[in-house]
Amino acid sequence: MKDEPSSVPTRRLRQFASDNYAGICPEAWAAMAEANHGHEPSYGEDRWTQLVSDRLRELFETDCEVFFVFNGTSANSLALATLCQPYHSILCHELAHVETSECGAPEFFANGSKILLLPGPQGKVLPEAVAHAVTRRSDIHYPKPRALSLTQVTELGTAYGVEELGVLCETARRYGLRVHMDGARFANAVAYLGVHPADITWRAGVDVLCFGGTKNGLAVGEAVVFFDRDLAREFDYRCKQGGQLASKMRFLSAPWLGLLKDDVWLRNARHSNAMAQRLAAGLRTLPGVEICYPVESNAVFVRFPPGVAEAMHQRGWHFYTGVISPGESRLMCSWDTRPEEVDAFLADLQQVLQATGGPEPHRETAAKGTGAVRRSPSAQTGPLK
């Protein structure tokens, strides 16, 4: 083995572990600072919350009901609890965040509604899996399916297209299911697909969207958007009971104004997606490196040769490894990821690969860099954030 460089960085300003690592984008920060002048009514009665809610209605081109909560877990859990009674069940992909990474919060806030897991390639739910889960039993001893939860983009960084969503929502309607969308990275899906936000939400048949802001440049805060206003009845009480009614609500809502003005939210998503594409393009040129799933957002899932991930960690790079599947690493780009940081990661990786002797490419995927995909495993070893 070749000698490692004598001096390696131990701390880097930007990382690829999570888009939660990034700070607040300037536009959101400026909007929060502007909202900090003077007094405003509390508990969402302020002008900022009303203004941003109206902007979201303009964005989605429909008279939706909007609520602001602190984080994605509360958004998903309270929205699903609104759709379900305790004797109902929630259908979702086996890798969905509501199942693997929310500590049972959806079931807790729904007073016991059971989550039922569905398989599917590339992190996506298939219509036939929904139909099977609903029709496999109809007796009173089985928790009655009531909601379908879809993650856009998925936990594997893949995006549901307009047609895919339309078929899934039509299937859900056929079996009397309401459709919830976990949109922690919804902006990245819109940017990748190049569609109007309405086309992959209410026009497709989605009832409620948890629109993520934290991963797109906010400090904190998600918007729960009900496209069926009847479903939002008394949701404000649910937020209060769940500890999600901010007294100084303007500091949750006002930063959204910075994101929504001049489509900053979309610009941020396009940039993080572009950085992921830059990273993936570089990875495809390196021997022994396998990209595991199609790169359709700001995530790149990769399989390195043995020992390489550990060597990159030692060089100061942070990223998750072994969470989706043993040996797979997830590299996340953010709204503030710089091209030179992507290039620095790739340069370090090339040095590590050379030092380890340049192993042969893995054979699990049919063709490296072609987007060939294995079916998602059901086992999880920890949360991705």
UniProtKB/TrEMBL annotation:
Classification via Pfam families: Beta_elim_lyase
Q: Which is an annotated GO molecular function term of this record?
A: threonine aldolase activity
Tell me the GO BP annotations in alphabetical order: L-threonine catabolic process
* CDD domains per record: TA_like
Region called Disordered, residue ranges = 356-385
Q: Which cofactor does it need?
A: pyridoxal 5'-phosphate
What are the UniProt keywords, alphabetically?
Lyase, Pyridoxal phosphate
InterPro entries assigned:
ArAA_b-elim_lyase/Thr_aldolase, Low_specificity_L-TA_bact, PyrdxlP-dep_Trfase, PyrdxlP-dep_Trfase_major, PyrdxlP-dep_Trfase_small
Q: Where is the Aromatic amino acid beta-eliminating lyase/threonine aldolase domain?
A: 15-302
- Known catalysed reaction(s)? L-allo-threonine = acetaldehyde + glycine; L-threonine = acetaldehyde + glycine
EC number(s) from the headed UniProt entry: 4.1.2.48
Spell out the family assignment given in the record's similarity comment.
Belongs to the threonine aldolase family.
State whether it acts alone or in a complex, and with which partners, per the record: Homotetramer.
Function recorded in the entry: Catalyzes the cleavage of L-allo-threonine and L-threonine to glycine and acetaldehyde.
Q: What is this protein called?
A: L-threonine aldolase
Name its species.
Limisphaera ngatamarikiensis
